[in-house]
Design goal:
This protein has about 220 residues and is mostly helical. Helix content is about 70%, strand content about 0%. The chain folds into two domains: about 60 residues; about 140 residues, Lysozyme, CATH 1.10.530.10. The longest helix is centred in the first third of the chain and has 57 residues. About 5% of the residues have low confidence.
């Protein structure tokens, strides 16, 4: 073989070898990319419930669940209803309202004093309402009282919790005079109407989101 032909053969061989290396490298890159894609998909599948739960916990918070379960059992209430009232009142971030309501369930001083007399409490002071255990106990007691006053109607009890018993009695009497039942849509106060809807929706959400924490299983 002539020197020229020998040199051309070596160049051709090197090109073929280089081409094979590039092809092999591309295949390896393809395998790694595919493996990375599969890993990413698996990670998304595995972490999605945790991510969704974190988002849910942020948008639908829950704290003091032991107290909520205890007070709900003592007052024969749905724990999710107690949690939903707290959510609608303070979203578990208590601070005094402009009307002077205190604590997680936003108990007004006059309401607290009425509940203290009714329940026979002898050592109650208004500052106690800042304590979650006391506030949830009084709020649950009040919720039970309102449910009993209105024949177990959550709609009327929640409307009274927000808008006051006197107003609910007036709305109820007006509806009865028309031969009707008071519905959410007929509540005259927009704030109270929205409040009732918010609590009822939150009750469903808490049942779904926190079955273990609220004692459903």
């Amino acid at each position: 073989m002539s020197p020229a032909n020998s040199s051309a053969a070596r160049v051709s061989s090197r090109r073929r070898s280089s081409g094979r290396r590039r092809t092999a490298a591309r295949r390896r890159r393809g395998i790694w990319i595919a493996a990375g894609g599969v890993t990413a998909v698996v990670l998304v599948i595995l972490t999605a419930p945790l991510f969704n739960r974190a988002i849910e916990n942020f948008s639908l918070p829950l704290r003091d669940q032991d107290i909520i379960r205890e007070q709900a059992a003592d007052k024969h209430l749905d724990p999710a209803l107690v949690a939903a009232v707290i959510y609608a009142e303070t979203k578990f971030d208590p601070r005094p309202s402009s009307a002077g309501a205190e604590g997680l369930m936003q108990i007004l001083p006059q309401t607290a004093e009425f509940l203290a007399r009714r329940s026979g409490a002898k050592t109650f002071t208004l500052t106690d309402l800042a304590t979650p255990a006391v506030n949830i106990a009084y709020g649950s007691y009040y919720l039970r009282y309102l449910l009993d006053e209105y024949g177990g109607s959550k709609l009327l009890a929640l409307a009274a919790y927000n808008g006051g018993e006197a107003n609910v009695d007036q709305w109820l009497a007006a509806a009865r005079s028309r031969g009707q039942r008071l519905t959410v849509e007929q509540i005259p106060f927009p704030e109270t109407r929205a409040y009732v809807e918010k609590v009822l929706q939150a009750q469903r959400d808490y049942r779904r989101a926190y079955p273990t924490e609220l004692g459903y299983r």
